[in-house]
What we know:
Number of strands of chain C: 0
Low-confidence stretches of chain A: none
Strand content of chain A: under 5%
Helix content of chain C: over 70%
Number of helices of chain A: 10
Largest sheet of chain A: none
Shape of chain C: globular
Radius of gyration of chain C: 20 Å
Radius of gyration of chain A: 18 Å
Shape of chain A: elongated
Largest interface: B-C, 30 and 40 residues
Oligomer: heterotrimer
Distance between the termini of chain C: 33 Å
Amino acid sequence: MRGSLAGAAGAVLERDLLLALRNRSDAASLLIFFAIAVSLFPLGVGPDPALLRSMGPGVVWVAALLASMLALSRLFAADYADGTLEQLALAPHPLGILVGAKIAAHWLVSGLPLVLIAPVLGLQLDLGGEALLMLAASLALGTPALSLLGAVGAALTLGLRASAMLVPLIVLPLCVPVLIFGAGAVEATASGIGAKAHLALLAALLLPSLVLAPWAAAFAIRIALE
Amino acid sequence: MKWASLAEFLAMGGYGLYVWGSYAVTAAAIALEIVLVLARHRAARRAITSRPDR
Amino acid sequence: MNTGINWFRYSSPQAFYPLAGAMAPWFFWAAAVFALIGLYIGFFVAPTDFQQGEAYRIIFIHVPAAWMSMFIYVVMAFWAGVGLAVNTRLSAMMASALAPTGTLMTFIALWSGALWGKPTWGTWWVWDARLTSELILLFLYFGFMALQAAIDDPRRADRAGAVLALVGVVNVPIIYFSVQWWHTLHQGASVSLTKSPSMAASMFAGMLVMALALWLYSIAASLVRVRAIMLERERNADWVKEPGSAPR
């Protein structure tokens, strides 16, 4: 293991990406879930294009939110089970940084694909060109925040029986602001108002999370490891 | 606030169902909490005294 | 400052147990008295509202319960934080003891809000900013209790719950702000349960007294609950086991 902090963080990031690459089906399943979730809404409320267009931003955003919750179960579970997490905690580097590297890898595998696929799904709901771009942009700002908040929840529930159900329960309420501003940004674009304020607020949510969430998650991991 | 009669008080200007529904459920919920918390305490005490001493 | 009482003595469960037991009834009866006063003000002093008629009298339970639901969450997070910082068991137990009562207050706020919304706005649920925020607060309480219930080791449960409560309490203003934003964007600030343009002094007084009553009640309920928690967790401690001093 390389000696410097950057080296260690890089090693963690690289390892997680490599593991995700070897289990490509996991990431693919997540995208398929995302697509299915979006498709369920028209099936549930009817195919009226005007209705779908008005619901579109919210629907895609909620589906992305739920997909993020699903993906969280893979963030720490495997490393916790095989003792890697314990080794990371014992390493001479700040656990917060190493956790940050894991979250970054997690977002690259589970969040970024959502951002890229979302406009296609938005097309299904008859969203216009500008709105589709804003959909991707808002998700690009929002999904990292979701991963960061989710990481805290995942860290708190390490090794618990019902963690797959528990993580959404404790994390989703905290994600409400991201949902409101993210979906709101797309709606504002679709209705011509402009989403500058929304994007600014999304950034305002993301930046403190970038700093605080890895540290909180690291703290929670240590609680679980004791 | 002067109510002309008990009937008028209970009717609450036609909104009796909503007003008394709120207060009744509140009272019931609080009563339930009291019962449950006292029962929990009682059970905890019983668990201590009934346990065989080592 | 020498008050003659060593307050730190009461940070141990053993010392706090009898103190809580002595205090609880006083808080309960004080709550009952204030509730009677508050209800009297609400039903016999406060006048009929010009717009909403008698339906508005739900405000005397809805708003105080909402205030308490928020207040208890903050207090819960405070005690959880203290427990995390200075590693005192009793602080953590207090946080766990407050959660169910806070949940109850949230439920009362939601229920009374629904019953207020129906005659006023025609639907059993109104997505106004306050009710929506209360709903999210309910989920936050559930999350805290579910997390603690899922962890067997009490110390881990204390500390994990504390992290969640602290993360939650920091997020509550953010959530509230975002819900306000969402609400005004979508409804143009027209649908709001508590828009009483002119609140008579007696109405406000009634709400304050009821809030005080609910606060005193919450303290009483939490004190009894923390006693139960102390017995459940300190089962093997000497002060609990002593044959002559069976806890009352």
